[in-house]
């Protein structure tokens, strides 16, 4: 289990362009080295060693996976969109690396030109603790929506799954401080996402990527013939391009998650679609190319 996250400070914001769309990575924390062996236990140093291209960006000198927590801030056709909201500050979490975090995420977001009150739409790829944390912040004794002028959006399948799930206390706490307050404020929208996906705004499309959770979605961006895809947690790390069957310890349906990766990677392989990993460390983005009977990520620095 991860123990200590590495805090980041405000700096230049990594940005990619997709036609007329600007995509900015808003860093929260680098996750501690223990995260990789816990999250992806089959990605051993021996497995990493067989794919030297993973180093030094995606694995350290001991061949331990590097992972990060960040959001993507997107400007598209005048709409200001935030994809996932990270871990959040000052929240009681069972994972020691996430417990009572104190990062400068909001400063970084504001310096990127996305002051909280200017965000129009928050897309939650799924309702896990490290993707919903900045939905709210503690104000005058209660958890209040961080983005008061935004609609928060997730898939109906995702909501319905957790609504009927027997949650442990840690997950109940996460819903109490980071999910229910936005619903109670009337800011949460549930979207039906069919197998073919659905467009929620010009150039912004949700694509179902079930397995990690039943209702998880990836976010497709398109503009002027160019495209990008934000993974959510259907792919946690580039090692899963090499081994699409390699799953996460927290996948709810590992077989479905593996099928999702195979289909997704097959559809991206050899195209110019930019893949943006929701937990990929810098350089975070790249293009998927075939590599024998699997795939490789060519980083886009």
UniProtKB/TrEMBL annotation:
Protein name: MBL fold metallo-hydrolase
SMART domains for this protein: Lactamase_B
Pfam families tied to this protein: Lactamase_B (PF00753)
Stretches assigned to the Metallo-beta-lactamase domain: 68-279
Keywords per UniProt: Hydrolase, Metal-binding, Zinc
Naturally occurring in which organism (per UniProt): Streptomyces longisporoflavus
Gene3D superfamilies reported for this sequence: Ribonuclease Z/Hydroxyacylglutathione hydrolase-like
Family: Belongs to the metallo-beta-lactamase superfamily.
């Amino acid at each position: 289990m991860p123990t200590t996250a590495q805090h980041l400070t405000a700096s230049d914001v990594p940005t990619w362009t997709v036609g007329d769309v600007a995509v900015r990575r808003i860093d929260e924390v680098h996750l501690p080295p223990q995260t990789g062996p816990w999250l992806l236990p089959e990605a051993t140093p021996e497995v990493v060693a067989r794919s030297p291209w993973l180093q030094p960006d995606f694995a350290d000198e001991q061949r331990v996976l590097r992972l990060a927590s960040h959001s993507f801030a997107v400007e598209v056709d005048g709409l200001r969109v935030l994809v996932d909201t990270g871990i959040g500050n000052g929240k009681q979490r069972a994972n020691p690396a996430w417990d009572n975090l104190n990062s400068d995420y909001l400063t970084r977001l504001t310096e990127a030109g996305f002051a909280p009150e200017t965000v129009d739409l928050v897309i939650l790829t799924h309702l896990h603790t490290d993707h919903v944390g900045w939905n709210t912040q503690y104000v005058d004794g209660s958890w209040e929506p961080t983005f008061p002028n935004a609609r928060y959006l997730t898939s109906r399948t995702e909501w319905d799954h957790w609504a009927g799930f027997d949650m442990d206390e840690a997950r109940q706490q996460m819903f109490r401080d980071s999910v229910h307050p936005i619903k109670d404020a009337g800011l949460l929208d549930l979207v039906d996402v069919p197998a073919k996906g659905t467009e929620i705004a010009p150039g912004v499309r949700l694509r179902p990527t079930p397995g990690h959770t039943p209702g998880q979605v990836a976010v497709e961006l398109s503009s002027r013939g160019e495209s990008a895809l934000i993974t959510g947690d259907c792919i946690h790390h580039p090692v899963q391009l090499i081994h699409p069957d390699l799953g996460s310890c927290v996948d709810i349906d590992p077989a479905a998650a593996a099928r999702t990766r195979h289909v997704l990677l097959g559809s991206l392989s050899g195209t110019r679609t930019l893949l943006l990993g929701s937990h990929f460390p810098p350089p975070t983005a790249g293009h998927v190319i075939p590599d024998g009977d699997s795939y490789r990520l060519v980083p886009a620095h």
